[in-house]
Amino acid sequence: MKTVVGILVVMAVLPVAAHAQLTSAEYTVNTGEMRLNFDTPYDSLSILLSRIQITDGTENVTASFNDFVRARPGILYLNMDTEKMNTINNMSNPILVLNEGAVKFGGVNNAAQSVPLTGIIQVGAVIPKGNEDILSVAELSVDHFNHVLEQHDALWRLEMVLKDYDDQILSLLELQQANIHVAIGTESLLAKNRIAQLGMTVIACCAAHTDYDIVHADPLSFAMIPDDDDALEATIALMNERGVNRILPVYPADDRHVLDRIDHLAQTAVAEGIQYNLLHSGEDIASYVSNAVVSDLMSVPGIRLGVLLTDTEDAPRILEAASKDRSLTRVMWFGQSPNNDILNNSNATSFAQEVDYSVPYPSGLENPVTVSLDSHVYNTLYRVPDPTAFGAYDVVQIVGLAILGDVNIHKSTIDTFGSLNFAAEDVASAIPEISGAYGGYTTYTGLDESGGLTAPVYQIQTIRDDDWVRIGMYNNPKYTSSGAISFGDTILPHTQHTAGEPLVHDVVPVGLLVHEYDAHAAGLAARMGLALMNDEYTLVVNDVTNDDIESSMNLFNDVGIPIVLVHAPELSMLEASQYAQNNDMLIIGTASTTRIFATPNDDTFRMLPSDVWQAKALAGIMQHDNIQGVVAIYPDSPEIRLLLEDVATEFTGEIDMTHSYDDVNNAMSDAAVSIRSMADKYGTGSTAVLVMAGDDTADIMNAARGTAKQVNWYGSLGIAGSHKIQNEATDMINLAAVSPAMSDGGPAQIILDSLSGTQLPMYSASLFEAARLAGVAMTESDSNTSIARAILPSIADGAGLIFDHTTLDGNGDLASSAYDIWRLDDNMWTRDSAYDATGGYTTKIPIGVITPLTGPDTQRGIQQMWGAHLAISAQNDMLKQDGMPWRLSQRVVDTATVPNVALDAARTLYNSNIQVALGPPDTASMDMIGEFGIDNDFTVVSCCSHTLNVNHTGTTSLGSPQIHQFLTIMHMLNDDQITSLLIIQSNNNTTDIILNNLVSNFNGLLNVQRYAANDTYSQITTNAESTISGMLNSYSSSSVGVLLLTYDDAASILEAALHQNNLQYVNWYGLSVDGALPSILSSPDAVTTATNTNFAVATPAIPQDVSELTLELQTSMGFVPSSDAYLMYDAATLLSTTIIRLNGNSAASAVAEIMPLLAQDMVGITGLLTPDVNNQRLHISHDVWSIVGGEWRLQKTIP
């Protein structure tokens, strides 16, 4: 019996042991704790710690019994002592080695294996209960920070240790005992840290104000929130902007110093003010104010008096009392911060609205990041977050970058844990510089050396429609478009912030009427549309679920909002439209309209096509699918019946329209008999259910039984429905639904992904475009309705971001007859075809675009995405003109300029049955994808890489190979009459083609200086100085040159060269890699050397005769395009032309075979595209760039 059991055990465990793996090893740098994670539970009584080692190949640490902490199923915990910690922390890229027999699985020894040792740096989060929105934002920021570290294979991660006690001092003590020296939290943590005196670095966010005296007294304390003086400064700036020339302070007796602060900050006269104490009632204070107001107004001609309430807590009772005195409405009123108790008092609210009571409020900016954070918190906690909670996102990022010691997380070269800052003093010393260079995602985050904000950003708020509304911004940051950022797995458009000026900027209000069921998604889309514009807008939302259209429109009219977005069904929009016509307002709606209600000059514009086109699309796709019999199910409403009548007019088969419903619960059962009858007549394959039920569609589908499940289903995705159908509807029904055609380009894809995390057929997309148009019209018309009405069609006339164009027809509807066809496959929406009444049914052939949309090269990626989009759009226009039954589309995937991420992106495309792609701009990624393509039938065309590896038959590059770079460098040297040249090259040998050709062809004196990875830049330039000194003894400085055959080290070498005298008097030349200029502008010393030495670098030339394309690119991107956009335009044109020549065949093998033949005689906008035998470009012109006035300037073009 025992023998049998033993055999059974061995037979059972051998497969487990064979596959058991150590999956990861984590090491907490600040505590020494180590965690080994296995994919299978091990035998906890058979651990041999001496067979566990940490090593970097030079140093070794062996675990011992003293290191053991505890064993858990699948996890082994160790703790290193101080000596071992010091050794591990100084190892370069350490790994954990599990030698054979260290652990056993079912009695069988583990196989020897090793994994990288991942460092964990812990940061405390002191966030008391009740602040779940702050915690949610902070946790998300940690996830996103680690996502970037993981992309770059960094050796460490950030971990947040939460302490949520009300006793914050206890929280700090526990963090200190855990050897955690850095904490984030709310503003109250600063005072508690000062009391505790624990020597911890604390950075606070997420509250209205703090006391900078606390911060200034402690070099380890930082406040990413304003103080009371900042609020006062914002209020006084607002008073100046409003024309106040005399300030009447109203202040409590225990804040006598506030007068001194007002006197110091004010740029106008300040009255003695009204001082009060706790014994004074609101009526007493109001009476004193009234007397002072009357006295000032009577005694000083031309006075514009502003009453300033300095205490936020007392504001409600003072305003309530002031409401009884009409004389107090003659002056302007201001405060220090919003107080929601004012809203709870009707008299105070009415008075505040009447006198335009305005206050500053520190808060995040309205941009794609804060909109997305709002959505995240809402979807996680089911409530709207406090706007100050967004600051937690920036605080985490700043702390993480301070630990790294570098604002550029993408280019960090940290290879030891000891190089990271995790001591309190080290983190604190890095924070001021990091905070300013980082700039902030949710607001401007620059901190001064004493720990306070240098330019705190405020919203200016007042009460409108019984709620606080943003009407202005103070210290609004300056914006520089920088492309995109990684927001976890989502890509968001981004602008870099720098400090703003202490001025008040108006905020343009835009109204939104929305039904409650779609309020959040709709508000997100509208806010995102407005957030992508550089001007500041505020969205004022009214819910019209109960169809109270007139009251909502009255509210918008009363507060001076002339343009209102209406995201509601057609009848609601018609009511709003009638109101707008009678009250000099404009409507931009997102509901399509029937032919009866589509009228010109009705003050209503619709960001959707007329239902006439929708009817044609529904009829067209059913006829394409050979449908002969249709049963329509729809709610009992005249506009839907009218739409169905239009479908019946276009459709050549039979339509049963007798199944309208009042109660959705009975809809399917009422139609079931008709569906069976129709299927008996035409067969299930030629029978369809046409469901026009919006949000009810999922319920109707779920009620289907028998034959109703076997027939085809068609529908139209209206204002709501797509989310519910995807999440709740049965996956056993073949549903095809139409939705207005969205762009097939990368820009639209990113916007949609940022709105919902996936490409859904959302009518909210039309709201995105509508909000964008409303914002532009409000700004350009200065909120004048008549002007806005006149210019809105011309504003809309052109390209959109989600729609290919937003041109309006004569009735004010979107002038488009195209509809996408979405199919529900495995509970996911896929868009595989389209129908256009003017072009018929078309299928979509996807092309991948593999490009860096995040990371250090984001602007290059944005340019390449747009270049591909515009080229493919031009090809699609030709396909439409030729009547072809298919179109090209893009699927953009991000590389983050990391080769492994680029390879994963290629795999993602390949697994989605996309075999051809426009490729990454960098050679390292191109080589990895080329290897993948050989094994997996995948073809890639790179716009910009110089492609060292020429053995990838499935790759093509339109960039500048090294032989062309050599020829261009020779041209530059000859032009400058260089007869003596020093070449500085690293030992990595990646530029040997250029070097070898120069050695063979340069006719003057040539010296080559190689340097190793461990050589300092000072050593490199000292050696160069010695060589150049010798050359200058025989040659004039104008004929001596230095060529840097290095790219990554260019800035550092130029910096060090500033301290070498002779190197400043000769001509310097540099190298571009994959079409990019060296990154040296951020280094003042490097810029100085580059300027002194006429440092010149050549890149592929920008075409000179494409002004229309250049304007379109610059308008779309927000910055001046470089050669990347044009090269990608040519790459996309070449690939598209190849697929077109193959009549829509996008198989990699077919494309790779004929594309080189087509390229032989093809001339792109960047010149002849003829390839050589290695599929690299044979001819390309180059632009020569130098630094003038601190920026790159084009000097000349070399053919």
Tell me about this structure.
- The chain is α/β, with parallel strands linked by helices and 1199 residues long.
- Among the domains are: 1-111, Immunoglobulin-like, CATH 2.60.40; 228-361, 3-Layer(aba) Sandwich (Rossmann fold), CATH 3.40.50.2300; 507-591 and 762-796, Response regulator (Rossmann fold, 3-Layer(aba) Sandwich); 629-736, Rossmann fold (3-Layer(aba) Sandwich); 845-960 and 1105-1179, Response regulator (Rossmann fold, 3-Layer(aba) Sandwich), CATH 3.40.50.2300; 962-1071, Rossmann fold (3-Layer(aba) Sandwich), CATH 3.40.50.
- It contains 37 helices and 51 strands.
- The strands form 10 sheets. Strands 1, 2, 3, 4, 5, 6, 7, 10, 11, 12, 13 and 14 form a 12-stranded mixed β-sheet that branches. Strands 31, 32, 33, 34, 35, 36, 37, 38, 39, 40, 41 and 42 form a 12-stranded mixed β-sheet that branches.
- Helix 6 links the parallel strand 13 and strand 14 (221-223).
- The radius of gyration is 34 Å and the shape is globular.
- Mean pLDDT is 89; it is low at 1-18.
The low-confidence runs, each spanning 5 or more residues with pLDDT under 50, are 1-18
The CATH C-level class name of the domain at 845-960 and 1105-1179? Alpha Beta
- DSSP E strands, number: 51
Overall average pLDDT: 89
What is the overall silhouette? globular
Radius of gyration: 34 Å
